[in-house]
Amino acid sequence: MVRVGVLAGSGYIGGExxxxxxxxxxxxxxxATSRRYAGEYVFRVHPNLRGVTELKFVALxxxxxxxSADVVFAALPHGESVKVVPQLVDSGLKVIDLSADFRLxxxxxxxxxxxxxxxxxxxxxxxxxSIPELNRDQVRGARLVASPxxxxxxxxxxxxxxxxxxxxxxxxEHVVVDAKVGSSGSGGxxxxxxxxxxxxxxxxxxxxxxxxxxxxxxxxxxxxAGTRIKVSMSxxxxxxxxxxxxxxxxxxxxxxxxxxxxxxYRDAYSGSYFVRIVKDRQGPFRLPDPKLVVGxxxxxxxxxxxxxxxxxxxxxxxDNLVKGAAGNAVQSMNLMLGFDEKAGLEMAPLHPV
Amino acid sequence: MVRVGVLAGSGYIGGExxxxxxxxxxxxxxxATSRRYAGEYVFRVHPNLRGVTELKFVALxxxxxxxSADVVFAALPHGESVKVVPQLVDSGLKVIDLSADFRLxxxxxxxxxxxxxxxxxxxxxxxxxSIPELNRDQVRGARLVASPxxxxxxxxxxxxxxxxxxxxxxxxEHVVVDAKVGSSGSGGxxxxxxxxxxxxxxxxxxxxxxxxxxxxxxxxxxxxAGTRIKVSMSxxxxxxxxxxxxxxxxxxxxxxxxxxxxxxYRDAYSGSYFVRIVKDRQGPFRLPDPKLVVGxxxxxxxxxxxxxxxxxxxxxxxDNLVKGAAGNAVQSMNLMLGFDEKAGLEMAPLHPV
Amino acid sequence: MVRVGVLAGSGYIGGExxxxxxxxxxxxxxxATSRRYAGEYVFRVHPNLRGVTELKFVALxxxxxxxSADVVFAALPHGESVKVVPQLVDSGLKVIDLSADFRLxxxxxxxxxxxxxxxxxxxxxxxxxSIPELNRDQVRGARLVASPxxxxxxxxxxxxxxxxxxxxxxxxEHVVVDAKVGSSGSGGxxxxxxxxxxxxxxxxxxxxxxxxxxxxxxxxxxxxAGTRIKVSMSxxxxxxxxxxxxxxxxxxxxxxxxxxxxxxYRDAYSGSYFVRIVKDRQGPFRLPDPKLVVGxxxxxxxxxxxxxxxxxxxxxxxDNLVKGAAGNAVQSMNLMLGFDEKAGLEMAPLHPV
Amino acid sequence: MVRVGVLAGSGYIGGExxxxxxxxxxxxxxxATSRRYAGEYVFRVHPNLRGVTELKFVALxxxxxxxSADVVFAALPHGESVKVVPQLVDSGLKVIDLSADFRLxxxxxxxxxxxxxxxxxxxxxxxxxSIPELNRDQVRGARLVASPxxxxxxxxxxxxxxxxxxxxxxxxEHVVVDAKVGSSGSGGxxxxxxxxxxxxxxxxxxxxxxxxxxxxxxxxxxxxAGTRIKVSMSxxxxxxxxxxxxxxxxxxxxxxxxxxxxxxYRDAYSGSYFVRIVKDRQGPFRLPDPKLVVGxxxxxxxxxxxxxxxxxxxxxxxDNLVKGAAGNAVQSMNLMLGFDEKAGLEMAPLHPV
Lengths: 353, 353, 353, 353
Prior knowledge:
By secondary structure, chain A is an alpha/beta fold. Chain A has 2 domains: 2-126, Rossmann fold (3-Layer(aba) Sandwich), CATH 3.40.50; 151-318, Dihydrodipicolinate Reductase, domain 2 (2-Layer Sandwich), CATH 3.30.360.10. In chain A, 31% of the residues lie in helices and 20% in strands. Chain A has 12 helices and 13 strands. In chain A, helix 7 (132-140) runs parallel beside helix 12 (322-336). Chains B and C meet through helix 1 of B and helix 1 of C.
């Protein structure tokens, strides 16, 4: 059994990490930290885990972590992680970071997107941005992993096959990503904007421009495409708790038929259990819908074409807390440690829910 | 008092017409037709109207309509309206049609978008596509009016100021419209896709390409811009009953500042009570959100810019059954008959709801 | 035009009062107070009212109120109202209080239910607890009115006909009231319990015993029944914003048939526009459902009997912000001032919504 | 590996059985039947299972079942099961029936509650009504098991400790059960009543009297109490898909304190993993709430007392498709076959969801 620790275990992503790791067949949770809830039972903060664990939160003491865990999952906020993680790295631990602090390869991007100078640019090249379906081998050999943002991974998995396929002639300048996300993506802290009466039944364009996940998407897709991709991204909050639908609008100048797109997706994901290609002729769920991945590590992808406008619509759906965060992190751990990639992640989605 | 009749009064749009017209200070409802519910009390089909009216549905008999009404609202399905409305036109009635059958000025568009040859192309030029905020004077003088599709009017009102303002240099080839709509937009007929357990909490890309409202949007915006606009539209069903948020992504090559966009919107809508410009610095509702127009005839519009990608995001929000259908039709009647444009439509939105 | 003022206009009930009063044909709003938002536009706090009013909140200065209004609606919290309202009473104003501070006739009840000694027990007998459908004439002659709690009025209207009808033999000791309420009933203040991700899809038994509205229900029903009624009440939060369904379970020892219950309800409410008796044989809405009163001042009531257990189930549904609060207050004003009882309240419910 | 078959695998309960059994460590699914979908992939009907199984539905042929399975789960409708199951019984199979056809021990109850004469009253005493937390040993030795109705098991588990504890003096004549249930409880067949626009945000008293699950509740509780219990039950549909909250109102004449109730619950469920006692002093989830059991086999129980009225409020919450149906059936199989009672059922609930 591998001993794992969770930093910032009291947030929604921390809770999801605990849900998955407490039931992981190869792992045991040695600790979960929380500044605010140190000494408190985990199930008081994550009431779903009542009866599942008697674990209590502890305060974070980086100097002691190396002794009590083999792998640490860091679910700290952006800007906080970068203050703590370097010590873990130095102590030789395996680290899976879920913040944005080690996702971007180019340190010069941090001031623009996150408003701070990266204090340890040397670490950026040591972290692998883990999207196992795209860089499985790299993750297998990694000791330090960054897990992408929830909208980033959902969008990237939907788009990667199209940018890999040069013959499609996808226009790199007009890539529109329109994301619809559940409330859990913005965390557990109450505010007027998240007050139920104010948040129920909204379609809230909370970040119509300048969304930070665009940076990760551009980084990965540019690398795949071999050319600079510019992503125009907007994010909307919708009336649900879990889930993301990412709708990408691309313009393509190449000659192609739907069958070519099918082939592109199949080639990309034939060996990847957690990516399902969804494109049916009938039924209520002919294309990806976050409703159908709730609780699971699946990312559903699909596409549609519009000849009249030369457009490809590419769709991705995930449970933002699982494949969009904790699940992808656990999947990465599985690869890093040589476990079955699916270990602890085989739960099928719930439906209806 | 003007005598009004409603054709196909048993659908959701028909019900909303009745809700508005039964309480209109200048109108009395002489009849409402329904094939299926003829003889039945209106409140059995629209249970919100219990206690409000004792009216019963009647069967449609076009030959008798001219005697019993001055204005007829036709809420028949596409393809049905075109079979019935010509007789009403010939009998001299004022007609406000809410189907798509008289919206497109060019009859050659009908086979492509609606799959039928238009039987009365001569009528198309006699109908005014009514968006009072854009063509108020035309509507004032009209006898025959077509009310636009719910997503069309919401999108058009959000985009018109930008296409009117030539100096923005909006790219006519890359106009992406990503709409999120409530369930009432697809009507009252049960199916597996609308079964509550299957429809709850979805983000369903039900029409990612080829949406028919694109035809109306292109027609109006091209006319405003003086050049051919190509609209790439996708529609998603989200977890609510009423409301549309239309998010449009434009690319603009001109030199401009946010203040120029402000001016464009203010110039366009300064005299229009039912269009509100929403662009605040704080609060949960800084931009249009359909939650804030529920039950009202308002269309909220707003925008955001993204310098990095040269993008303008334009947002429109309506209650699809009011400004997106019945309310716009009543507003059109008010203009046609010289009533106060707001008569019967002053109800403020509900909040929270 | 009567000049009306609203105290504590920034809460949800205050916002609903403003929505109704701003569009009331006989009233003009002279002021709305808010400690927190004094100087701010009303529409910044109630964004639905954008475009509807340019009114700004003012700080509460009780000494100046008498000059600027004829009627004051007080939507202050329990315990606050009792500190402010006495001055208004002394200044000769008409007052409609929406807190609990003047609802109970017996001052000795306040320590038990509300935890404070009532400072002005002399005022309690001067206030009329207004449920126009039960005491219309009393309200007509009143200068000082208390409007009941949202669950209280909904339950009382559902039960009054049964306690009036002595022949039913309703057991006064086993009256169970099981209420289901939307989130707006608990106000606009964010907390962990109202955080969207925590509140969505709950059925939360937030007050299974000891609910304060039981006091009002007992007071009114005991008076109607002529005997002491004991109410066992539980309240649950459910997944909606507006609305209450109150389900009451009674045991009755008399001989009666459903037709007798029909008669009891019809006798009670034949002249009352805002109470609708809902008991149909078919359709999705055979009995009261809060969905069908959204935005309106209706209270729907209905019943079912169960011979096997000797039980009568009585149901009431309201929009908690309208008939459950602001609407009932405006209706009371209409009676006090001799206006049409329905003035400003005729808006039909929205459906679907 | 035990070979299991599922009859009527295309409904929601059938789908949930498949979700659980396909991932059960000791079982393999040999077949799933569906009249309507025979020949179709399971994942076309249960789209959550896409990628999880390549199984196809087969037509039901009772004569062949004995060869291909060791245990059969029958999720047929009431009245249908009784036509099919007797053959399975005769062929020696282990049977777990999820319909009501073998739940009631007294055949004379069927005409009253289900409207048919039971054709095989001899079988009723051979079936064990399985609630493992109450009759674990009986289930262990059983070959034929009936799993209770979703509202029945939820209510029974909440009430059993109180009826076991004679000193409480619970009044057997005034037991009110007020249940709130998600839409999945009424199955997958579309109708006007389940049409999303009509069903969203309801609190629908769809069965205020005469609910059939009362029969099961009375049977079990009377047996526990040793006296005839009469249950007054009402069921309401609320705005969610999964989950039940059962609120029971009891009147108790004994002398007792809260600590006595705590003891009653602890004594009853100390060895039962799947029943959690929830009664906290703080936090949003101080008492059972179906939101906290979604996807899991937990039944949360809790209570509150009201001295003033002599009332005990007992609460139970389950995921109606898991502990309310498929999960309890799988738990029963585990016991029947000597597996770990939790096998295949350890998934923790999701939160937030």
